[in-house]
Amino acid sequence: MRQSGRRNDAFRLVHIIILPRCTRTFELPESEYESRLEKLRVLLERKGLSAAYISSTTSFKYFVGYSYLATERPAALIVSAGGDIFFFGPVMERDHLFTQTKLVKQAFTYRDYPGDKHPMRFFAEWLKQLGLSDKKIGVDSSSFYSSSWGYKGISLGELEPSIKFTMIGEELYSMRLIKSRNEQELIRESVKWGAVGHRLLEKYTQPGLYDFEVAAKASLEASLEMKRALGDRYKAKNWSMTPVHAGFRGQVGEHSAYPHSISVERPIRKGDVLGTGASADADGYHSELERNMFVGKPSEECVKYHGLMLKMQDTALAAIKPKGKCSDVDKAVDRFAKENGLNEYVLHHTGHAMGLEGHEAPFFDLGDDTRIEPGMVFSVEPGLYIPGLGGFRHSDTILIKEDGIEVLTKYARDTDSLVIL
Prior knowledge:
Blueprint: H1 30-47, E1 51-54, H2 57-64, E2 76-80, E3 85-90, H3 94-100, E4 106-110, H4 119-129, E5 136-139, H5 156-159, E6 164-167, H6 169-174, H7 181-204, H8 211-230, E7 244-247, E8 273-275, E9 277-280, E10 292-295, H9 300-319, H10 326-339, E11 351-353, E12 360-364, E13 377-380, E14 383-386, E15 390-393, E16 396-401, E17 404-407, E18 419-420
Helix pairs in contact: 7-8, 9-10
């Protein structure tokens, strides 16, 4: 059993329950995409552009609901000022594309990369076919396609010097900062199933097991429960083993002092500080729930630093003000750390925005003066990392409201509630 203790009013312990079947479609309505495309068309008109050339695969999801696995094979969406949308990409994606979106008018495809003719040479020819030679086109990346999977490009600008390419990447990204009501609901859904996964992580954690054993069991069981509840309406939009993921990412014992640990080479054992994380794919949207767990009664040192971390997170939450600056949140945490002699143990900023990507701008960082606006969604995750002892960090997902913040991840956070006996 777990000990009980005082809990912050903004949080409550989440118990596993059999959730009722969802009665709504678990995806964004077409009207959401139409609204986004209309904003893009307004941008094109304002800048005097004939089309947008979009190569960010996150933007594929954002504007037409298409999930593309970015490998060495370049791809792009062409959105004309008149509203027509075209896909440039490998033939292996042609049929897959049209199962995901009805917004694309036509697909232009090549055999494979690198091929006997570089795909960018096809792209240049297809732009001519669409009547875009001698036109102004907005582009989100100067490389025209970027992937870490071995792609080596030819500049589309050099192949088509008659086209004037104008950077609009920042404007496209800014469209994603404020989450619509539909997006907020999907993030809430991600939070809900992430909590189910995390509760199962607590249930199955015990000394002698490897972290990946526990993670696999908890993630699979939570994903099956999610699928049973949502049925055929649920479609995963991210390339992942399971729709729900709950695990440790190697943050076990002394390795929890590494903020981005990858693995640990031993089983979980009594006395370990564990760093956890849980989320779920909700039509491509993310959330963050991270906690410490303690295997057996934690030492006085662990209780001390965990308590200081909780106060540091409370300091961050209190500093988040609609219309305030992101930097002010990190500054408040920085002051707390200095006043309590913790500077050397703070290894990263206080949080980040999220949505279709796990990390998005803006950031709760000393150097980010972006204004905090209603509709933004952030993680709040200041941490303390003590070499040889462990890392102490919770991450909670929050929504910025007109009059304050709403903590979406309502999960126990006090030390006693997170002890595994």
